């Protein structure tokens, strides 16, 4: 008998694993719609979709190991990180998906709202929030949209023998700033950025750092309200402190 493993569970969605099958249950079915279409369009290694029956989607496990987890050193080699960079470049160079992504005005509004919440609730020192809000400005500019994954966390890219075997969790794929993906993947793993860019190619480091600040500032409240701790070593609050 295969055991049921709870991969993640909160009020928005849950992911269960049984053997080599992942079952995703989402309160918003549009997320599953995006995931299915993005997997079909993305010219990179993706998991096989086994079946869908609302509100669930079953996906086959991909081989290999994730590049790492937030808050711990990555076990992957520099060559594996470079391979990930090359595959992400292929995604960003692909034709755009037919649906739009987030607009700049909405990102700015969310950022200012979350900064205000962090300060007014004394979650973080005001000077720390203010400094990261200043750093964030570099990313708040017009960009040429690319096909982005949208939630390219380090746990979502799998490799084996220094080759990418799969990229998972595509529900936030859209048109967007390609540097958001690079920042998401290297959040808390700044030391891996040169290896990633060895495969991806040149990128503006100030903008990547700005997206680190934005992701950390905007995610903090959600993490706290859903039982996660952004203050664990190497996680979002440490990313913010590194900008001081």
Radius of gyration: 18 Å
Shape: globular
| Averaged pLDDT | 96
Lateral arrangement of strands in the main beta sheet: 1-2-3-5-4
Q: How far is it from the N-terminal to the C-terminal residue, by CA?
A: 51 Å
CATH architecture call: Alpha-Beta Complex
- Extended strand count: 10
Structural class: alpha+beta
Extract low-pLDDT stretches: none
Superfamily (CATH H level) name: Aminoglycoside phosphotransferase (APH), C-terminal lobe
Strand content: 15-25%
Helix percent reads 40-55%
Keywords: Transferase
GO molecular function, one term: transferase activity
Protein name: Aminoglycoside phosphotransferase family protein
Domain Aminoglycoside phosphotransferase: 42-205
State the main characteristics.
single chain; 244 residues; alpha+beta; Aminoglycoside 3'-phosphotransferase, Chain: A, domain 2; 8 helices; 10 strands
């Amino acid at each position: 008998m295969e055991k049921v493993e709870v991969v993640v569970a909160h009020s928005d969605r849950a992911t269960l694993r049984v053997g080599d099958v992942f079952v995703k249950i989402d309160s918003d079915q549009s997320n599953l719609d995006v995931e299915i279409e993005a997997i079909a369009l993305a010219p990179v290694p993706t998991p096989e979709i086994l079946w869908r029956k609302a509100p669930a989607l079953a996906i086959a496990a991909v081989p290999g190991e994730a590049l790492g987890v937030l808050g711990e050193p990555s076990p992957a080699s520099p060559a594996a990180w470079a391979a990930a960079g090359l595959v992400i470049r292929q995604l960003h160079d692909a034709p755009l998906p037919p649906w739009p992504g987030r607009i700049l005005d909405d990102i700015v509004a969310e950022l200012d709202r979350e900064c205000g919440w962090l300060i007014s609730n004394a979650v973080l020192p005001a000077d720390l929030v203010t400094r990261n809000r200043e750093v964030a400005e570099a990313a708040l500019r017009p960009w040429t949209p690319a096909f982005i994954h949208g939630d390219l966390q380090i746990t979502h890219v799998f490799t084996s023998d220094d080759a990418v075997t799969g990229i998972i969790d595509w529900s936030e794929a859209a048109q967007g700033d390609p540097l958001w993906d690079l920042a998401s993947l290297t959040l808390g793993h700044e030391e891996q950025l040169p290896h990633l860019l060895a495969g991806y190619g040149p990128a503006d480091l100030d903008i990547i750092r700005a997206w680190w600040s934005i992701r950390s500032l905007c995610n903090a409240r959600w993490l706290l309200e859903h039982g996660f701790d952004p203050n664990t070593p190497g996680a979002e609050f440490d990313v913010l402190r590194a900008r001081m």
